[in-house]
Amino acid sequence: MSVKLGLRLCLALLLTLAAAYYQRKTGPTYPVHAEKEWQGVHINYSFSRSHGGSDDQPVTLTLSDTTVSVTLIYRRFPSKDLWTGMVMMKENTQYTAFIPHQPPAGKIEYFVLLNKLDQHTILPGESSVVTRFKGEVPAAILVPHILFMFIAMLLSNAAGLEALVNGNLMYRYTVWATVCLFIGGMILGPLVQYFAFGQLWSGIPFGFDLTDNKTLLAMLAWLLAVWRGRNTRTGRIWIISAAIILLLVYSIPHSVRGSELNYQTMQIKHGQ
């Protein structure tokens, strides 16, 4: 391996890690967490916005003052339900309560109310936290899905960089990027969604799920890159374009406009 090729592969890896980190940090399922001081009390919390499995979702926070009264307040989302309050259980400096389990794609909005000497504050702040419930996805499906999508992104970046310099490996990377994207996004991705929300595919033409549709767009771009990439004169443009499209797709936070349960009809709406 030449030094220049090694540098391009390192750059491809850095781009992949940066895109994966950005997607996770900006997504609607990333936990809301912070540390703050209030009335001389140190508060540390991390509120989840996604919960898988068949059990209730725990909500926890840590306080330096155990005389504070702490209440979890929640209701179904979206709904006009009355808010329900639940006193959080205390064990040493940790307070815990459990949001009742919801059907797949069911959402709950919640916040935590703290009271001390007739003073109160709300966590995390002015807006509530919205969490979505989902079914348990087997690790045998979820782990390979994540792995293949990561490898597809890495090979996509490598192919794009190779195409920029007209490298000898650009078409080989293109083929393998397409294969990995197909396995991770078009086979394992729908299986993940099936176990989580009970439907294999909710993108075009059946729905408007953004995750499915952006995966489909990226897949079409890479199939075109494989087809047109054989042309050594114009193929580079198609490969670079496909790499840019996948990079843009990864910049869209995961689970945006995802599945949501309509509590009135008890039907799952995809693309919410």
Order of SSEs, N→C?
HEEEEEEEEEEEHHHHEE
Number of strands: 13
Number of helices: 5
The end-to-end distance, rounded to whole angstroms, is 47 Å
| DSSP helix fraction | 40-55%
**Mean pLDDT score:** 91
Rg estimate, integer Å:
23 Å
Shape: elongated
Uncertain segments are none
Strand portion = 25-35%
Describe the main β-sheet briefly.
Answer: 6 strands, mixed
- Return the structural class: alpha+beta
Q: How many separate domains?
A: 2
Write the layout of secondary structure elements.
Elements: H1 3-26, E1 32-38, E2 41-47, E3 50-52, E4 57-63, E5 69-77, E6 84-87, E7 89-91, E8 94-99, E9 107-116, E10 119-123, E11 129-134, H2 139-164, H3 170-197, H4 210-228, H5 235-251, E12 260-262, E13 267-269
Helix pairs in contact: 1-2, 2-3, 2-5, 3-4, 4-5
Describe the structure.
The chain is of the alpha+beta class and 272 residues long. It is 42% helix and 27% strand. The strands form three sheets. Strands 3, 5, 6, 9, 10 and 11 form a six-stranded mixed β-sheet that branches. Strands 1-2-4-8-7 form a five-stranded antiparallel β-sheet, with no helix packed on it. It has a two-stranded antiparallel sheet with strand order 12-13. The protein is elongated, with a radius of gyration of 23 Å.
